[in-house]
């Protein structure tokens, strides 16, 4: 197996942990992919490396020339220059070692505590996750930052703008339509039907009906119903006199003469017509009073009589169990859904106009009333604190697991490309500072020695 094959196998082995810990391949590629911007940054790193190396070679040449001048009797100045150049070389080499040790082993030697990034990548990721969890995902930090933002007042000011309220209304309408479209009618109908049936079975309805009926009778609300019924009955009798008399004659014995049956039919019809007319025109008609007493007694029985309540409950069960009632409950959802979808699609519908008006009103109140702002801020803070305290481990593990899924070689190259140029200034500064320190030490030594 050639060296290239070895490298490919090692790279594959390094990328396997990303899949084993559940890191998406896209997340790993995002770190290991070398973009055009990274290439440009890497070229900048190379230029800075050449600059730092050139400065090192410069002080080395200066050191050689200064030593030669000192040995040829050029004077004390040569010693100062040589000391500064020598210290500059030491500083440059020391900082070169420190910078190089971050990314790889200097000169390929297995020196301990070198190649820190590729060898300690996973530990660095875990430490970074712990750092974020302790310093950014703590309850006090989250509350302090959110309180400083003032979400309540900002959200209120934003919602108070009509264009923003229109946008929110449109998004809410789209979400509502999407939710209603996703829901299957059969599932919702089954849930609604089961909920209504269960609620009706769990609650006795007779006492409630009795109280309602008692109040209606006490307020005289039933009288309008009685007026309507007797009026319609009287009008029907006026228009269908033949049908009434035919019905009476049809129920008469066969041995009675026809003219007698007709006289009886006419008499019955006239009495019915008179009765309905009197009941319609006389508020104090005895039949009305009898009906009032009946309804009052029935309302009382619904509340206190065990037999009446039992019969009502049995009738309720029979009614709810009928297929027609269940179909009616199921069709109610279809009608409601269609109505809501139509209202959500129509920009001028009452639903959308009311939602928009409510959002504008809410925004104005949130922007102006500190009490409402405080409530909103408290809700947001509570939700955020719950999330970070409940899922802090998952959030921090996302950082550590993502870092663990990165390829060490490519991660090192990418980090070096992004921060390597600044690190080369360390080498340059080390050369300059080392030279100054060396000059200072040589000066002090000569002064003390002198």
Question: What tags apply to this protein structure?
Answer:
single chain; 450 residues; mainly alpha; transmembrane helix; DUF445; membrane
Descriptive overview:
The chain has helices at about 5-20, 25-30, 35-70, 75-105, 115-120, 120-135, 140-150, 150-160, 160-180, 185-200, 205-220, 220-240, 240-250, 260-280, 285-305, 305-320, 325-345, 350-370, 370-390, 390-405, 410-450. Helices cover about 85% and strands about 0% of the residues. The two termini are about 70 Å apart. The chain is mostly helical and about 450 residues long. Among the domains are: about 5-135 and about 405-450, no CATH class; about 185-320, no CATH class.
Give a topology summary.
Layout: H1 3-20, H2 25-32, H3 36-71, H4 77-103, H5 116-119, H6 121-135, H7 139-149, H8 151-159, H9 162-182, H10 185-202, H11 206-219, H12 222-239, H13 241-250, H14 258-281, H15 286-304, H16 306-321, H17 323-345, H18 350-368, H19 370-390, H20 392-404, H21 408-449
What is this structure, in a nutshell?
The protein is an all-alpha fold. It contains 21 helices and no strands.
Using the CA coordinates, give the radius of gyration: 47 Å
Distance between the termini: 68 Å
Q: DSSP helix count?
A: 21
Largest sheet: none
**Share of residues in strands:** under 5%
> Helix share of residues?
over 70%
The overall pLDDT, averaged over residues, is 80
